[in-house]
Specification:
InterPro entries: T6SS_TssF (IPR010272). The chain has 610 residues and is an alpha+beta fold. The chain is built from 13 helices and 29 strands. The protein has five domains: 5-64, no CATH class; 86-137 and 434-470, no CATH class; 138-311, no CATH class; 320-432, no CATH class; 488-604, no CATH class. The longest helix is centred in the N-terminal third of the chain and has 21 residues, at 5-25. The mean pLDDT is 85.
């Protein structure tokens, strides 16, 4: 209804202005229409004008709604996420201290585990799904510290200026480092945003070498290749799952603005030296290229403690699969309202319709025509009898009747409506709890979530309150702006393309926060030039031509976000500017000194050759 209000106010004001203008021009026949007349003061006339203004506002809005019959169906095929809500997200911590004492190795749970809220803590039943593999390890982070020098007699790389140490302890008597069953230990960086961002950037970009200390008083052994890795960038950690219509180049950009905490995971490779001894304590010393002692960054890293490294964590999203139902809508033949829960419709919102089929006890028959999505590629001939389903999200109805905003209709190949009985359809949906998830209280002593399997599963804490449900801005021309950005423009990489790049980043900033505006103010210039590199393939080395993109930034504007993470996300977005036999390489350059701050690896283009 908020979108309809400005149209209503405009139509009502226009009616009053036209009535006064008509009364001024024709006072003999319409004098009572003037402001001093008594007709406009009549409450019955006022209600009539308000009703007419409401009807006219609906018509005006339909004229300005960017042709949804075409654009929405096209986006459902090309990039459906632009039309869907972005569900609430959080970080779940599995507290398995009681079971860790008996475990001998790691238990790895794949992504997709559904968790439920405790009805005693929150009256609205909300469900969350894990989005990344979860490690349940019989260990704890006992100590973490930052210092500017190593003990005497310890050989460090010449460029090393500081040392970050993490001490790990096994909790089970039967566990051993050689029997954990994992190659990397995944930890969540928890704490204040400035410290966490600096810690993530330091571990993922400034580690020169790893020195392993088996036992608290054992010797330090240099371990080659055991460098920490940045988490959250792989396809297997996508918040909304992998979809070819929502490539990583765009998906990561939306995740970066909507829920940046999903990138606060670090993976520590388990050194081979730790698996050869029978010790229960392992200390990982990371030699750093920076920051130097006495700097602001060094003083901030001196606050690092063991509590900032949390094992057993994974991102979760308020999105789950549910069997839905259809109810008669009364808006025309062949139309029905899609309900995720007929008894608690207001607590749910349909994220997507995955499948529509006939119910076995309804109109199902051996010769019943299949039901296919109209926004698809499987369009049969009109004579084949195939029926199609079309879905439409009514934003006006969503504000008045939450949970009833999704409308489903059956049509034939000519888009003519087909009558149906609502109870004849079986629906498989992906559902969210809308903004109810963001209102749930967190931090209960016995856990916030559980999955009903008993044991440590029912002691799951949320380290962050779930984020509110977000949406892409589609009104007032926003839909066509999003469509125009689906195909990259080479002019965006030129000097005048900086404003276009900022506009694109604002589109993906669904929270529309002031921090993002400060970040965008830190982008000062963009340019590109031809580049070439020697690439080794199974057929041998050869020279490949590509594009080097140089983005000038004011580094102080990224203090709360992290410059390297922004570069990694944006570098993947620029994949869209190169073909598969070419590459792009992003470099972030200081606007003050011209120094290269971040040089991203070369990335192969993602545009296929036709």
């Amino acid at each position: 209804m908020e979108e309809l209000l400005p149209y209503y106010e405009r139509e009502l004001s226009l009616l009053q202005q036209q009535a006064e203008e008509f009364a001024r021009r024709h006072p003999q026949v319409a004098g009572r229409f003037s402001a001093s007349g008594d007709l406009l003061q009549d409450p019955h006339v006022q209600r009539l004008m308000q009703s007419f203004a409401l009807l006219a506002s609906r018509v005006h809005q339909r004229l300005d709604d960017d042709y949804p019959r075409f654009t929405h169906q096209w986006l459902e095929q090309v990039c459906p996420q632009l039309l869907r809500p972005y569900p609430g997200c959080s970080i779940a911590c599995f507290d398995n201290a009681g079971c860790a004492a008996q475990a001998s190795g790691a238990e790895v749970l794949p992504a997709g585990r559904v968790l439920h809220t405790n009805p005693l803590h929150y009256g609205v039943p909300c469900s969350f799904t894990t989005t990344a593999p979860l490690q349940l390890l019989p260990l704890r982070v006992a100590e973490a510290s930052f210092r500017g020098a190593a003990p005497g007699g310890t050989a460090l790389p010449r460029q090393a200026s500081a040392l970050l140490s993490i001490r790990l302890e096994l909790l089970s008597e039967t566990a051993g480092w050689d029997r954990l069953g994992v190659e990397r230990i995944r930890l969540f960086l928890d704490g204040e945003a400035p410290l966490v961002n600096l810690l993530r950037e330091t571990l993922s970009t400034q580690v020169l070498a790893t020195l392993v200390q088996a036992g608290e008083h054992g010797p330090w052994t240099l371990q080659a290749g055991a460098v920490p890795l940045q988490g959250g960038l792989d396809d297997g950690e996508a918040l909304l799952g992998v979809d070819l219509r929502w490539p990583a180049s765009r998906r990561l950009l939306a995740e970066y603005f909507v829920f940046p905490e999903k990138f606060n995971f670090i993976e520590l490779p388990l050194p081979a030296a730790a698996r050869r001894g029978g010790v229960r304590t392992l200390v990982l010393h990371y030699a750093l290229a920076g920051p130097k002692g006495g700097s602001n960054e060094a003083r901030l890293l001196e606050q690092v403690q063991a509590r900032h490294f949390v094992p057993g964590c994974t991102p979760v999203v308020n999105l789950f699969t549910k069997e839905g139902s259809a109810a008669v809508a009364g808006h025309g033949p062949g139309r029905c309202t899609v309900l995720a829960d007929a008894h608690q419709a207001a607590w749910h919102e349909v994220f997507a319709i995955d499948e529509v089929a006939w119910r076995a006890q309804g109109e199902q028959a051996p010769g019943a025509p299949p039901l296919l999505p109209f926004a698809g590629l499987r369009h049969e001939a009109a004579s084949s009898g195939v029926l199609y389903w079309m879905a439409r999200r009514d934003t006006l109805r969503a504000s008045g009747r939450p949970g009833h905003e999704m409308e489903l209709s059956l049509v034939n190949a000519a888009m003519a409506p087909v009558p149906l009985q609502a109870d004849a359809l079986a629906l498989r949906l992906r559902v969210t709890n809308a903004d109810f998830a963001s209102r749930m209280p967190v931090g209960h002593a016995d856990g916030d979530l559980g999955c009903g399997s008993g044991g440590h599963w029912n002691h799951i804490r949320l380290l962050r309150p779930p984020t509110p449900s977000r949406r892409f801005a589609l009104a007032q021309g926003g839909l066509w702006t999003l469509i125009s950005h689906l195909r990259p423009n080479p002019l965006w990489l030129s000097g005048r393309g900086l404003e276009a790049l900022k506009e694109l980043l604002r589109l993906y900033d669904l929270p529309r926060s002031q921090d993002t505006e400060r970040l965008l103010e830190g982008l000062t210039a963009i340019e590109h030039r031809a580049a070439q590199a020697c690439v080794t393939t199974p057929r041998g080395p050869h020279i490949v031509r590509g594009t080097e993109i140089r983005l000038s930034v004011r580094e102080e504007h990224f203090a709360g976000r992290g410059l390297h993470l922004f570069a990694e996300v944006l570098s993947r977005f620029f994949d869209l500017w190169a073909h598969t036999n070419s590459f792009t390489q992003l470099r972030l350059v200081s606007a003050h000194s011209g120094e290269v701050l971040v040089a991203c690896p070369r990335r192969e283009g993602s545009v296929p050759l036709l």
